[in-house]
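Lecture notes, continued. The same structure-token format from the folding unit now serves as the input rather than the output. Read the line below as a description of shape only.
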């Protein structure tokens, strides 16, 4: 099952709020080259091109479906290309990634690779979800461990790309700060923030997760995908039977600058 830009965009404003907080930390830069790693459907990458009006801005993503939508925003200074985040090349004054690095394993190895792409005087700025201990994610893993899904998935869960005991490769804010320090970064910022989101009911949670965390499960389940979604939906309704439903949308943001 490919990524669906329309499903992801259902909560566009809520998903954009952490991006704008991240951008506020680097708006003082005057970059010549900017890259947005995991640009998705490109709306926020286009915003980067408007903010940094003298920069060449590149959006990079591995999803052809997302890039097809993103290229509608392309212009003289804004281009998009298909590639994996961990394979990015070139040198940039701003390497930014908004809600994408959680799909790439081993951040202890990834961050040093990305740091080599930051030009002297530039910055690395990243935002990732840090709510993998939230019941929506725990219930996904629980559903995946049950028959018949466990057999179809071969035991796979999102935690397979994570450090031991975690549901995600995302690290703690202290670990990111220490990594950046070890790389020689200056003006290090690392923090976690909850962005409140209110859903009408448990189906709102399902719609939210359908644009992100549910995708890799469904793409592996084939003809069992609909049954998995329904089993997961039942768990969500048992956990949140009332209306409305408060969702603590928790994100990690970190920024480091390379001495020029």
């Amino acid at each position: 099952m490919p990524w669906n830009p329309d499903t992801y965009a259902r909560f566009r404003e809520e998903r954009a709020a952490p991006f704008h907080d991240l951008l506020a930390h680097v708006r003082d830069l005057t970059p010549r080259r900017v890259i947005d790693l995991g640009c998705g459907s490109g709306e926020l990458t286009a915003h980067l091109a408007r903010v940094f009006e003298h920069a060449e801005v590149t959006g990079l993503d591995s999803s052809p479906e997302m890039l097809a939508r993103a290229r509608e925003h392309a212009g003289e200074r804004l281009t998009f290309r298909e590639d994996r985040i961990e394979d990015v090349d070139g040198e940039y004054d701003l390497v930014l990634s908004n809600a994408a690095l959680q799909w790439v394993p081993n951040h202890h190895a990834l961050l040093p690779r990305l740091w080599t792409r930051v030009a002297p005087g530039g910055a690395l700025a990243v935002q990732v979800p840090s709510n993998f201990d939230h019941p929506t994610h725990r219930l996904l893993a629980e559903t995946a461990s049950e028959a018949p899904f466990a057999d179809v998935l071969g035991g796979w869960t999102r935690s397979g790309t994570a450090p031991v005991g975690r549901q995600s490769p995302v690290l703690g804010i202290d670990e990111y700060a220490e990594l950046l320090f070890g790389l020689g970064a200056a003006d290090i910022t690392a923090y976690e923030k909850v962005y409140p989101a209110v859903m009408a009911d448990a189906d709102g949670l399902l719609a939210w997760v359908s644009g992100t965390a549910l995708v890799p499960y469904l793409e592996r389940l084939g003809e069992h995908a609909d049954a998995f979604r329904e089993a997961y939906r039942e768990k969500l309704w048992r956990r949140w039977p009332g209306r409305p439903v408060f969702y603590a949308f928790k994100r990690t943001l970190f920024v480091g600058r390379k001495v020029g």
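Point for the exam: The chain has a mean pLDDT of 92.
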